[in-house]
Amino acid sequence: MRNDRKQLALVIPQSGWAELQHAPADIVAAMARHENWYTPSPVSRSVPRTQKRELAQEYWCIVAGVVIRIETGYQWDGASIPRWAWFFVGQPFDPRHEAAGLIHDVLYGGELCDRDVADWVLHKVIRRTRGYAQGMHANVFWAAVRTGGWWRWFTKTDAGVQAQRKLLTWWSREFVRQVITDRESKQDQVEGMST
């Protein structure tokens, strides 16, 4: 897992400026700081009679410089951790890695990138999660999901992939930087006029 040169190149079209204007303040602040990774904890609830979680509100994050928005109501089944690995890394909905499991499931379920890249993103998010030891824990977590997640990758249906993609919007790093630059220059112009 030493390859830091991987890039997240999503296979669906990028969204426009109108949707990006509704980003929460913490995401806007992270974008302004040019952060490449920002993964807050999602607000979710259990789905009755299933082993799934559901987003109770929109979830915004920055992953490998890509801003991602996942709509309210998105359901996921947690990190695909084999039962034998629960002792080492925790259960699929452990709050310490709920964001990592959500992001990974979105990338897997919507086939938004290669499986290797989705697993690399999971590893990176786990390494950045508060409360986890760096390195070894992320490596064990990555290996557990790599072992347990292959079946999900190869058993998706086209209808399921399309349904997943409808709940996601994203913006590239370059687009976001241009938006921030434009916003700052407009703000400077307004301040210049008022003095």
What this model shows, in words?
- The chain has a domain of 131 residues.
- The N and C termini lie far apart (53 Å).
- Strand 1 and strand 2 form a beta hairpin.
- With 195 residues, it is mainly alpha-helical.
- It has a three-stranded antiparallel beta sheet with strand order 1-2-5, covered by helices on one side. A three-stranded antiparallel beta sheet has the order 3-4-6.
- The chain has eight helices and six strands.
- The chain is elongated.
Can you describe this structure in just a few lines?
This protein is mainly α.
Set out the fold topology:
Layout: H1 17-20, H2 25-32, E1 44-46, E2 53-55, E3 59-63, E4 66-70, E5 75-76, H3 86-89, H4 98-109, H5 115-128, H6 136-154, H7 158-165, E6 168-171, H8 173-194
Helix pairs in contact: 4-5, 5-6
Which structural class best describes the helix and strand composition? mainly alpha
In what range is the share of β-strand residues?
5-15%
The whole-number mean of residue pLDDT values reads: 81
Low-confidence stretches: 1-5
Describe the main β-sheet briefly.
Answer: 3 strands, antiparallel
Order of helices and strands: HHEEEEEHHHHHEH
Could you give the order of strands across the largest sheet?
A: 1-2-5
The helical percent reads: 40-55%
Beta strands, count: 6
Number of helices: 8
**How does the overall form come out from the CA principal axes?**
elongated
Distance N to C terminus: 53 Å
Using only C-alpha atoms, the radius of gyration works out to 18 Å
